[in-house]
Amino acid sequence: MKIDDLIASFEQKLKLQRYSPNSIKNYTSAVRSFLKVALKRFDNPGQLSEDEIEKYVLWKIEKHNVSSSYQRLIVASIAKFYQLVLNRNLQVRHLYPSRKEHRLPKYVTVTDVKRMLASVTNLKHGCIIKLLYGCGLRLSELLHLKISDIDSELMLVHIRNSKGNKDRAVMLSPVLLGDLRNYFKAYNPKVYLFEGQSGGMYSEKSVQTVVKAAATKASIQKTVTPHILRHSFATHLLENGTDIRYIQQLLGHSSIKTTEIYTHITDVAKSKIKSPLDLL
Which residue out of 163, 168, 212, 217 is catalytically annotated? Predict the structure, then answer.
């Protein structure tokens, strides 16, 4: 069986179930990687047992050191593929990680953001960074923004069909609106707010490169990614006293528990507790 045919069938069925474009991309990518390995030993993925799939997941953990969250994605993607394409319900609940990783989100300081923005001379690149940080957008949300999503009357940015197929709106900074108007006049995008040189949606790689280049130019030593700018948005709002439930809505989190991870950073930063080192 050809991998491309299987992936095409899987993608079609995910679309019918109304999965978001980003979820479809992640699911099909994980399944494609799985099929490339599986079809070296088997003519048909339907021939694999749960034990074989378990060996694959273990191999990904040991060989590629995948995170707990990515392990969850791998198992969910394979299970969904077998259910939708091969009409088989796998017994793989035991392959999901039982313990969630509790890592504090990485972020940059307000000073770092200022230095990044000061280092950018390209109008388009400046707007990209300001939207990621100033609106707390996910990378996929930024890429899918259309011109019509910028609401200058209500001073909102509308985010359509985001994670979990939900819409939300975030505040639009007057400074950012002015920059976007100048950008629009200079670049004249047709459909998407940010488009490639030959039209169509701007690429993920291009945005990642823009952010990385700005951080490097600003002499920021730590790694800076679009998602770290989103973390910084939430962290800085908390530091300024914004109610966490508002931040939850702005980030598009389904559960307040997801948003509460940012409180661990701000609580430590604001506390008056001294390090034992300072008591020596």
Answer: 163
